[in-house]
Design a protein that fits this description.
This protein has 182 residues and is mainly α. The chain is built from eight helices and no strands.
């Protein structure tokens, strides 16, 4: 998996950074960014990459935390990776989804008000508080269930790469080449 490759690379090549949750989050963010760069090259016109980094970092942090609670006899099973990955994705997406809602509303607000020069939200925090105040906190999670379905494809790709570690190695190298060439 790309995440595991990044994590190993960081831990082996940059020992001064130490280890811990910050490495998990960084490797997760890098992995998520790589997935976006390789699978959605046209989406880079939108701020997809910026939206993906917090989600991916949190998802892989939760994944590592869940793995720490798995009994030793199940640590290497595909079912463990699938279960921990699915739960981590579910929690990561749920926690970061409000940021995506604000981003979308900011984009729509700019499009609607561009001729007036009026920007609806000053920043993300202002967007979050305004939505809760005017539309209720449930609006921050509107459309989340559909998003769960949409991202199930990502899980399938992750499992394929997990089951085929040789492909994972080449996927990581290809991703790094794309980043360098950009």
């Amino acid at each position: 998996m790309t995440y595991e490759q990044y994590r190993t690379w960081i831990l082996n090549d940059y020992p001064s950074l130490g280890s811990g949750s910050h490495i998990d989050q960084f490797a997760g963010s890098a992995s998520g960014g790589t997935a976006v760069l390789c699978t959605y090259p046209l989406d880079l016109a939108r701020p997809t990459l910026v939206g993906m980094l917090p989600y991916a970092g949190l998802k892989f942090y939760i994944y590592e935390e869940l793995k720490r609670h798995v009994p030793v006899e199940y640590e290497k099973t595909i079912a463990m990776h699938l279960s921990c990955g699915a739960l981590a994705g579910l929690f990561g997406q749920t926690f970061t989804y409000p940021l995506d809602v604000v981003r979308r509303q900011m984009q729509v607000g700019k499009q609607l008000n561009s001729s007036l020069g009026d920007v609806r939200f000053k920043n993300t925090w202002h967007g979050l508080t305004t939505i809760v105040r005017n539309q209720g906190w449930k609006q921050l999670f509107a459309g989340l269930s559909i998003n769960y379905i949409k991202t199930s494809f990502s899980l399938y790709v992750s499992v394929f790469v997990l089951v085929c570690p040789t492909l994972s190695y080449f996927y990581l190298r290809f991703s790094l080449i794309l980043i360098v060439l950009r």
